[in-house]
Amino acid sequence: MTQLKIAKNENEVNLELSQANRHGLIAGATGTGKTITLKVLAEQFSKAGVPVFMSDIKGDISSIAESGSINDKIQERLDLLKLDDYSNNAYPVTLFDIFQKNGVPVRTTITEMGPLLIGKLLDLNNTQLGVLDIVFKVADESGLLLIDMKDFKALLKEINANRAEYAEKYGNISSASIGAIQRSLLRLESEGAETFFGEPALELEDFIKFDESGKGMINVLDASVLYQKPKLYATFLLWLLSELFESLPEVGDPEKPKIVFFFDEAHLLFNDSSKELIEKVEQVVRLIRSKGVGIYFVTQNPIDIPESVLGQLGNRVQHALRSYTPKDQKAIKSAAQTFRQNENFDTAQVIGELKTGEALISFLNEEGQPNIVERAFIRPPESKIGVIDEHVKKDLINNSPLNETYKETFDRESAFEMLQKKIEKQPETSEESKSSKKTKNTQKDSEPKKKEKSSQFQKETSKLLSTVGRQIGREIVRNIFGTKRR
Ligand SMILES: Nc1ncnc2c1ncn2[C@@H]1O[C@H](COP(=O)(O)OP(=O)(O)OP(=O)(O)O)[C@@H](O)[C@H]1O
Ligand SMILES: [Mg+2]
Question: Are residues 323 and 32 in contact, defined by beta-carbon separation less than 8 angstroms?
Fold first, then answer.
């Protein structure tokens, strides 16, 4: 069985590679060593041929692409741990950036993201979410692609202009709600998020790559700006989760994970998320394991993560927590209770005493049971501590083969163009609808009349839809997170 060397006391504290898809948790207060622990884990995974994804919020993750060096502090740790198998190394990194400045562009389409996540992103209330659902239904049923913001806005405009007709088929659509969605979109655009929606959309297989020596690629998302927009950041991570879930096949219990994801500042995934969304995260986290994906949540305090998700995180590294307030103490207590106790120390007490880069650790054993909690020091990272050199970063971006694939965006025929065509044909159809209005005025609204009108509408839309239908082929089906099924 392959084991990853993560930490040491008198003994090595190792992570079973075959249990690494049983997910994990890295928790601890500011400055206690979480980021370095993440890097040590990522290095070991990479070395074992497991690609990794992580986001870089403070700019201190990307430097995993540079070799580290031994200073006094590192030497002290090496001596303390009696590490004789340590050497400095650089790791293979691909940088990604949804704002397209500090990495390979990451894009997706509105259609792929779906109503649930777009609803979270736009921070809509229930009524507005109802209308958003209709917008997606209109698009999905006709295979009308919403690729970018332009498409989305065009469809909103179309639906708003023909509200009454769409309402007949889909239910009430208030123009106030459409207005609210449009304003939310403007806000998103002003945050620069429109670059995220477009094509080519990222194929998640492009995260599962290796360097020439077989090391797993470490995919680092520049999240320095993204993190300032917590909704966008959280939605992005949920989208990744959903895409992974959707695109990878079942593998059962693999010898090692296909890929490991680190979700930094994981509490943001759950902050003001609906109960429905949290349940879905829980469900996906549970199911994605058998697709060979390990998810590691990184957060200051484990109580920021819902119980149902926390319960599934088998591999745990708990750095120090502060214990100033009664609330702190409660958090420590509950963190301590999640471990299998070690009779040699009081877990809750030790959580308050841990030094930087020291942690309480419990990984799963070969049988998948949690080991008794150990107090140990995390190994020093083999790569550089601190911020990446600007030149190294530029080279990484420019030399990435993926940059060629994703650098240029393209704009194929989608909702905006289709609706444009519909509007160009409008004179003819508006004549028809005018005459239907006239008859409506002369006759009292009666059942047969209504039918006639809706069939008229159906004829018009089916005209639009059949042109679109021929192009796209089929109705869009949505999966667990409401993202597009492949
Ligand atoms: N395992 C380790 N080996 C060597 N040095 C370490 C280790 N862990 C932490 N350190 C030292 O402690 C510093 C702080 O650690 P780190 O940046 O990982 O904290 P953090 O918990 O991520 O903090 P923040 O919440 O502010 O991001 C590091 O810059 C490094 O100098
Ligand atoms: Mg950190």
Answer: no
